Amino acid sequence: MLGTLTKSSAISSKVMAAVKSAPRFSSALLHTQPIYQDGYDETTAPINAFGARLGLSLDTNVLKQALTHKSVDSNNNAKLEFIGRKVSGLFVTEYIHSKYPLIHPGAFNTTLRAYVGNKSYSKIATEVGLQHIVDWKVPEDDSVKLGQSAVLADCMHALVGAIYQEKGQDAAKKFIHDFVLSRDFDVRPTIKVQEPKRHLSMLLKQLNKEPAVSRLVSETGRLSSSPVFNVGVFSGENKLGEGFGSSLKMAEFRANQNALISYYGQEYKDFTLPSDAENVDKYVANPLGNTQAIV
């Protein structure tokens, strides 16, 4: 995958709060207090504690089902996972579309996978301690590959599905924004294309702009063993992008790539999500970008 979470080793503020709120016990307390009190259910207590840490108000049975992987035969989370994946995709899709309305489909899909793909959801699940309470079964058939990472991602999606099913779309949306979309993602690497000069030419034609022209902006050490060329790409008097390299060809390639990133990666700061249309006095739809240039 071209794009990676820029905070790959960081934990979102919501996740950090959940981790910090995990109970701590002194050794003296562990030795002087009875382990289980009257009415204590050792099978559901860890699940309830997990839900409390994440601020979930789900029924214990629903939460337990969400954390029971579909590899377990009965009362598993297969349906909740299916719903959760669709719900996750919906709310992350509207967020990406609203924030980057001009991003091309390839980069859009890569960005979407970076947020809701198994790698991301498995990492979030691990950070909140899901690996300690999920119920799953290793397949008896050796040809079926099922690892803990996939199980955690499935259960995380099921958790979203359970929230949506029991508490509604607003609660599910809040959970996704708190735990998933709170992570920064750099879309720029996902925008890169194999033939940027050709792509930019077609894009400018589609936008009815003047054709791109490459110009040498500066250079150093042309006759040395390590020259550096700085090339700008222009449409009329407007500079679209700039790039450097050890050859004119490399610098021009990077300049065209930079121009595409500048266009497709335009970020909107002030936007209203479509799902929030009913919560504002006057909803103004976000701009709808052009179809990606056909190369």
Automatic annotation (TrEMBL):
Report the residue ranges that make up the RNase III domain in this protein.
47-168
Classify the source by domain of life: Eukaryota
Cited SMART domains: DSRM (SM00358), RIBOc (SM00535)
> Which Gene Ontology terms describe the biological processes this protein takes part in?
RNA processing
| CDD domains to which the protein is assigned, alphabetical | DSRM_MRPL3_like, RIBOc
One family from Pfam that matches here is DSRM_MRPL44
The family this protein is said to belong to: Belongs to the ribonuclease III family. Mitochondrion-specific ribosomal protein mL44 subfamily.
Quote the protein name from its UniProt record.
Large ribosomal subunit protein mL44
Organism classification, top ranks? Eukaryota, Fungi, Fungi incertae sedis, Mucoromycota, Mucoromycotina
Gene label: PARPA_05699.1 scaffold 19499
